[in-house]
Amino acid sequence: MATATVATTPEGIPVIILKEGSSRTYGKEALRANIAAVKAIEEALKSTYGPRGMDKMLVDSLGDITITNDGATILDKMDLQHPTGKLLVQIAKGQDEETADGTKTAVILAGELAKKAEDLLYKEIHPTIIVSGYKKAEEIALKTIQDIAQPVSINDTDVLRKVALTSLGSKAVAGAREYLADLVVKAVAQVAELRGDKWYVDLDNVQIVKKHGGSINDTQLVYGIVVDKEVVHPGMQKRIENAKIALLDASLEVEKPELDAEIRINDPTQMHKFLEEEENILKEKVDKIAATGANVVICQKGIDEVAQHYLAKKGILAVRRAKKSDLEKLARATGGRVISNIDELTSQDLGYAALVEERKVGEDKMVFVEGAKNPKSVSILIRGGLERVVDETERALRDALGTVADVIRDGRAVAGGGAVEIEIAKRLRKYAPQVGGKEQLAIEAYANAIEGLIMILAENAGLDPIDKLMQLRSLHENETNKWYGLNLFTGNPEDMWKLGVIEPALVKMNAIKAATEAVALVLRIDDIVAAGKKGGSEPGGKKEKEEKSSED
């Protein structure tokens, strides 16, 4: 690493530019260091790519173990130190937040583009020319996806199910993917809303609850909400049909005054009246709730023991200290309103559910609110033999929910298995000579990088990557074979659309944009100035303080 903390004037007088302990890397050295970091992260991730990819075991500083092949999770848990590495983590997180899937595609493509750019740098092609060529290639790649993408509607349940199956196929839960895919499609279709002429899907309305125990096939979809609390009083009913639900953001307790008050009692009867009055206040609150016809109360705040007693006498099932997010989901699921003042509660504010029941799940009791008329909020209760399995199932379901939601929102899908990548590479090679000059080399390099994704898929499946790539190139010369990709289980090129390997067009497009932007950013950096770490020998640092104290 080159350091340049000191410069000299023409007269040879030294001038200090950077603080002591700072370092500077510049020119080709800086570029190579950044490209090496991108390549190293790609190497770490590429063995997890595709349905035949492997898993990673990540152990944090506290000894907690995470076993996953989810790209965003791996990068997040790796705790990278290199600044360029942190940039790739941000790209993965951005891809995950935007489309919920395709994080590994984005990072691995960035690594492949960086490799090809390094080869061009050795040929003395300037980084800005490479970036310009990459940007032109990105435009063609995105246009290719838009041209070949197939329209999909929310009623195409079969296609949506195949999208979910494709997403789940590369996860650790692949054995139960048929069952989970059905849950995912039903959940997303239930919470989807038509706004104008566009479908809108808010995945916050799909509540995911995890309880280890049982098997993955015990995972269930609840058309309503699962409240991870138990009924507050043993004397209350545990099952209520045709439930009328009061959702309260107010406590069923005697409110304490804000100011400190002192009450002097000189007669035991006054004390008795005082306690009786407290009971009456709580009884009035319960009577007001019962008068609306409510037979279930779900409260965000506390419920006093006296209030619990009166609620039980009235035959009302009650749950206290429910999460605010659960109350909001219950309001959407049951059609009720969250009320902050019990005096304002009316029968119109009550939600409806066919069944509210307390059930034992594993070692815990939970309240299930099911059978709402048209719930716009649903729950998935995940089960699994190990806590690690439950966590990985949650990650897999979130990705699958996201991909199905992407297809519904965007209305377009493409085939997987490398079909899109081969088609993009073919069109880029036809386009490159039209541009000419050194940019042509950058566009051809982009085509090779895109094909690198297929070679990694083939390698992970134990196939000959070059042989399979040539077969696919040959097939794609015929326009009718645009959906031909690599079946990693048989090792043969097949029509991926007919095979049911379908992905959202949005995921592919976003991954290409993210990877290209990341590499463009890295290639433009020719100078890295790193400040000295705190606690070094700089003024006021730990080392200096220790030296001073030893002198004293």
Automatic annotation (TrEMBL):
CDD domains: cpn60. It comes from the Archaea. One of its GO terms (molecular function) is ATP-dependent protein folding chaperone. Residues 531-552 are annotated as: Disordered. Keywords: ATP-binding, Chaperone, Nucleotide-binding. Residues 540-552 have a biased composition (Basic and acidic residues). Pfam families: Cpn60_TCP1. NCBIfam families: thermosome_alpha, thermosome_arch, thermosome_beta. Belongs to the TCP-1 chaperonin family. This is Thermosome subunit beta. It comes from Saccharolobus islandicus (strain REY15A) (Sulfolobus islandicus).
